[in-house]
Amino acid sequence: MFETAEMSRLTVASPVEKMEEVLRICADLGCVHIEEYGNFEDGIGVGKSISSESSSKVSQLLTKARALQAEIGAVNADGPKSVAEVKKLADSLAEQIDNALDNIDSIRDAESEITQLEERIKALGRVAPLGIPLDLMAGFDGVELFIAETSKASKAHAEFADILSDIELQAAKGVVAVACRPADSAAVQIGLSALGAKPIQIPAGEGTADKMIADANSNIQTLQAKIDSANKAVNKWTSDNGRDLVILLEHLEREESIFTAPTLLAVSNQAFVLDGWVPSGEKSKVESALSSAASHVTIEQYVDDHHHGDDGHDNSAHSKEVPKELTMLSDYLDSKGLSVFDFFNNMDLDHSGNLEFPEIEAAMQKADIPDMPPLNMARFLAAIDINRDGKINLPELDLAIGAIRNGTYHAEEHHDDAQPPIKFENGEFSEPFELLVDLVGRPKYGTFDPTLLMTFTFPIFYGMILGDWGYG
Predict the structure, then answer these.
(1) Are 226 and 99 contained in the same domain?
(2) Same domain? 60 vs 113
(3) Do the domain assignments include residue 441?
(4) How many domains does the chain have?
(5) pTM of the predicted protein model
């Protein structure tokens, strides 16, 4: 209650064809935190997202579901559904989601048209006082037409008095129209400048501006009715299917995380390694679930680096040196054109999927590698045996040989410096106050969890602050 949950390091290795099954088991467990692999080494790098018909379907439906949820903000006030029911939603809701998105698109299109019509009405309203049909404002050959806004429209006749016989002038409240020959255009522009006039862009169309304004208003009313109808349909959809959408969205995001999880793993040509964390209290449950699909599973209690060596334990098992035998084996496989998979199968005499001492010694002797020193089995095994079970499986051998070939083999295991994620262990009463702790940052692993303290002190201090504010 006052400490964060104890975490253990999880290492899973298995052939690549078991990857999706292992990831799905981890998702079902709900307590596995996968550490991202970031070495980006040739031959042993991160995996690629799972590409299949199912993953493509999930990705497309998830995109649509997210877009719809962003529009309607559906909530689930009735609780979860069974797994069987949730899986059926992917098929039953797909078409309904499309229909809801179509209604939303029609609303957006109508709103966009209304905006354009309102802009058009505004433009038409500027020239409407002139009473001139729009098709006449387009101008004619040999005639130039100027239409401009001005607050001094009443003074237009006086301003153009000297050339009034050479031009056609129409003035109305706030607007002036002048038609002239090209030879008089300079004088007209000088006169408009004196009036402080600003040119108006003439709207396209035929007929009077008043009639076009009336038509635009009629179209706006039609579009608004369409929007109201579509909004009612969307609201009804939300009422009928909002809960299912929230549930489906959670399911699809979980599936998407499974399909993209390989990008977090260390993957070679034939094997992968999953590096992660699990709560120590879930160790047995996790081992039992993963052992059915993975070649090997190890879960080790996390010990802070600051405490290593303080208890008198020998930590030499955590260090790995590159034995000469392993390097020579890698060179031998290259020279013979043998894959790790073929060599492993030749060594695995009992077809158990694991290599033991006699099988390894027999295979190394049979390989007849030139200048091979006497096999130091302990050192050779320690360099490959990730889970320290005294045996070697295909993923372990494949990863070790790959690291040797790429010059990326390290004397220390890559994940020794990683810090475990922080998991709170609070009851229903104090769990909501974890949000407040997250605002300032979760405590360091293995230290005091202040959630329960916040549960009691925050309401008290908030009440005191609110009281001070209320009474000045």
Answers:
(1) yes
(2) yes
(3) yes
(4) 3
(5) 0.64
CB of 284 closer than 8 Å to CB of 290: no
Say if residues 263 and 47 touch (Cβ distance below 8 Å): yes
**pLDDT of the chain along its 472 residues, tens only?**
567 788 898 989 888 899 999 999 999 998 999 988 765 555 567 788 998 999 999 999 999 999 999 999 999 988 888 888 988 888 889 999 999 999 999 999 999 999 999 999 998 988 888 888 887 777 678 888 899 999 999 999 999 998 999 899 989 989 999 999 999 999 999 999 999 999 988 888 888 888 999 999 999 999 999 999 999 999 999 999 999 999 999 999 999 999 999 988 888 878 888 989 999 999 999 999 999 888 888 888 887 654 444 444 444 434 445 667 677 777 777 877 878 777 777 777 777 777 776 677 676 666 655 555 555 555 666 667 666 566 777 777 777 777 776 665 554 444 445 677 878 778 777 888 888 888 878 887 777 788 888 888 888 877 777 776 655 5
Q: Is 335 a domain residue?
A: no
Tokens of 379: 């050192």
Domain annotation covers residue 66:
yes
Mark whether 120 and 54 lie in a shared domain: yes
How far is the C-alpha of 406 from the C-alpha of 266, rounded, in Å? 14
Q: Specify if 99 maps to a domain.
A: yes
Other Cβ atoms closer than 10 A to 332: 17
Considering the domain architecture, whether residues 115 and 227 belong to the same structural domain is answered as yes
Give the separation between CA 71 and CA 233, rounded to whole angstroms. 13
